[in-house]
Amino acid sequence: xxxxxxxxxxxxxxxxxxxxxxxxxxxxxxxxxLHQRERFVSALVRPLVWxxxxxAGFRQVLGISIIPPYETYILYEVYIAPGLMAxxxxxxxxxxxxxxxxxxxxxxxxxxxxxxxxxxxxLFCKLLAGTAVSLLQxxxxxxxxxxxxxxxxxxxxxxxxxxxxxxxxxxxSLGMLISSGIKQLENFAGVMNFVIFPMxxxxxxLYPLWRVQEGSPYLYYLCEANPFTHAVExxxxxxxxxxxxISLAVVAACTIVFMIGAxxxxxxxxxxxxxxxxxxxx
Amino acid sequence: xxxxxxxxxxxxxxQPDPAAVPALSIDGVSHxxxxxxxxxxxxxxxxxxxxxALLGLNGAGKSTLFSLITRLFGIQSGRVGIFGHDISKSPGxxxxxxxxxxxxxxxxxxxxxxxxxxxxxxxxxxxxxxxAARSAELLGRIGLEERAGSKVRDLxxxxxxRLEIARALLHRPRLLLLDEPTVGLDVKARADIISQVRQLxxxxxxxxxxxxxxxxxxxxSDDLVVLHQGKVLARGPMSRVVTEAxxxxxxxxxxxxxxxxxxxxxxx
Lengths: 282, 268
Fold this sequence. Notes:
Chain B: Keywords: ATP-binding, Nodulation, Nucleotide-binding, Transport. The complex is a heterodimer. Chain A is mainly α. Chain A has one domain. Chain A contains twelve helices and no strands. In chain A, helix 3 runs antiparallel to helix 5. The longest helix of chain A is centred in the first third of the chain and has 31 residues. By secondary structure, chain B is of the alpha/beta class. Chain B has two domains: 166 residues, P-loop containing nucleotide triphosphate hydrolases (Rossmann fold, 3-Layer(aba) Sandwich), CATH 3.40.50.300; 66 residues, no CATH class. Helix content of chain B is 34%, strand content 23%. Chain B contains eight helices and ten strands. Chain B has a six-stranded mixed β-sheet, sandwiched between helices. In chain B, helix 6 links the parallel strand 7 and strand 8. The radius of gyration of chain B is 20 Å and the shape is globular. The interface between A and B is large, with 55 and 63 residues.
């Protein structure tokens, strides 16, 4: 018998191993996304319906005055474009978490979590992968929107990238946090109703907040407190090469809080452990 | 002048070396889901280069035990060690030495065989080039090299299982856990998988923990752990467990062991 019984000294993990793991997870998530054409199509159709139909109909109803970051009068379509970009990311973040619930039921999550790398890192990779997928969707949307005369400065396509990464991470980690509390897939429809729609409608995505304030001060405060508003504003300003510092601070802080919460919830000795066996117990 | 007598150490029977670290050590492990106790003071070892069958009916606690060993659940009480590395204290070192085949299929059906293997390799930090070489080699070993590029969805149940076992071996673990791997397979596929895993034990010295409720998968030379309603009722070489139960075969031994325990009511 070979001498395989001696105990090895812990050797830890090298940076290269971390990077291999990260790229592997992002690569797999990208492949899965490309295989799910319906998901890609529906991710694009949703904001385009808002842009082509809703915005066209509302153009006459809502007048938009000149507000930062815009320097001229703008069409309503131009106003809601950043909100729709954030909406893509909101849906994607929730959908990634949907896939985590699915993965957990189907056991795919297990293959991820039995990787020897630290669990927090694995979940962070998963978040980055989900964000990368949302970037594909957002840029595809921007391309189509360009033909619809939504033409931010060309440098805006680059300056918006860091904002999109941060907002993608925030919404993804929010989704992950929620997914840790969902036991079964069926409950997800409730999350759609109770998370996605309220977040979207009580934000600056569809109407500028000063208009909201005229209508209802309470709704205004709610919108101001909504992290999604700040994701939208961060994206809106970044698309025009500017930084909205308050939004940046809120989004960054929320990202950190949600991410820590999600990693905490997926810690084996806490969240998942209480919930009993996933799938068939045998 | 006769030739010297054979050196005794060489042919010594494989006595367990007291200094040897078991591939897997389960030490006083209990686990409860709320008020329901799934595992009660479970202890046993799996030695390197041995085949240990974990025998139990559905609901005996096998999957819970697997979830604890793989760190999907936190340990509530007791200790799980993999080659001496405590799964709670140094999970990275422990999981590195562990390969798992879960009971539910855990492959990406829309990805190819190779893509599935490469993803798993990445999760273990194995570089792309090395991973590609190992994947090709393992696919060859399980006779699926020609299907490398096809989608997993198109494989048969037995082929998927063989792929999952190959995947579990990609990072060259020294302990392999399999949770009822032959469920739902036909006779031929079952036999293939069992012989494939037994080969790993004899040829590569891998310690195997094989959870099952099928008596005919266990051989007399195997180590046996009988788990029933969360408790270990018997453990040791199968032949000894059978004799001590006063039975002729595993089937009878299992019925005798669990029959005595099955009576009292309670939340199992």
